[in-house]
Write a structure and sequence with these properties.
By secondary structure, the chain is α/β, with parallel strands linked by helices. The protein contains 16 helices and 14 strands. A seven-stranded mixed sheet has the order 4-10-9-8-7-5-6, sandwiched between helices. A four-stranded mixed sheet has the order 1-2-3-12. A three-stranded antiparallel sheet has the order 11-14-13. Helix 2 (62-75) runs antiparallel to helix 12 (281-296). It is globular and about 60 Å long. It starts with a helix and ends with a helix.
Length: 412
Amino acid sequence: MDYATHFADKCATLQRENRYRVFAEIERTADRFPEAVFHSGGATVPVTVWCTNDYLGMGRHPEVIKAMQKAAGEGGVGAGGTRNISGNSHAVVRLEAEIAALHGKEAALVFTSGWISNLAGISTIASLLPDCLILSDALNHNSMIEGVRRSGCERQIFRHNDAAHLETLLSAQPKGRAKLVVFESLYSMDGDIAPLRTLIEVCERHGAMTYVDEVHAVGLYGTTGAGISERDGVAGRIDVIEGTLAKGFGTMGGYITGGRAVIDAVRSYAPSFIFTTSLAPPVAAAACRAIEICRAQQGLRLTHQTQAGRTKAALRAAGLPIMENGSHIIPVHVGDAAACKAVCDMLLARHSIYIQPINYPTVPRGTERLRITPTPLHSDQHIDRLVEALIDVWRQVGLPFESAGARLLAAE
């Protein structure tokens, strides 16, 4: 078999479908964020980044950088192996204590990514429960889906954010059966927020264990940045909260937090934890400092929400087809893979604005979009330039606006 040709054909198929992913070479500049440098063909071009998941800019915060530098200087840059072999780094132990305190839980366990923490957490918890039924939201992230599959347990899908459908499915099960309900607090592609209190009440009525992914909410919502569950006053009623260190906290890694017994069980049984090299101590030290800062600085979250609101309002006023939601994430509907890529290419080439296209399989075909994520460091001037650029590109690509006034503005 001609293996190389086979794999080349597979990639060619993605190119024909306008789904082939091209990674832009972006160099972040810590002192000028959200400004960055785009490397292309040996040349460098300054650009403004509008699609980062470093939602608060914590990845360039001077105190977070200092914490990482100090830990690396004192102990080196690597972990040296798995925690079982190389021992528990003090920085990692301290980080887990900080995470547990943030969420008001007994214990926490960190992983090298949020994807792995979901895979390990869901699959291990469910597989350890006898005859467990997993009920999963229809729009759960790939990492959660893989965790459900890896468990080997029976699974059912409930309609997105539909507590009534979840109630129907749970009602059909014996009260004494083990049940694990997994869902997100904030869905990253649509930006919509789950009705946490209602979903939790349904689970409680039917004796189901709750596992909530707060990846796109930690650091950003709640009095201390513990997420939507803190904002809505229900964190104490959730059995396991999963989060990331790579978005609101600006570093790298993922975690689960909950009761001591369940966290210890995952630590003891999950192969993807046991056989994986530990999070590097400098990363753990930086993440710990980022959490400390976020817990203490509510003003950072308020500024973030203010700039997200201003960006939404400006895009809406321009007639651009934003997908409405109650979060900081701003999806702008395009609806065609080729057009979505053309928009992003043109934004970069004409306006030095970097936004990646979101195409299938990340979102369903026909719902291709831009995903805009303002930070506290995006100024009003950044917002104005973004709107002007999008109006220009929307006109150039021939995409529809949502109002006659916007079409007139675009034609000027």
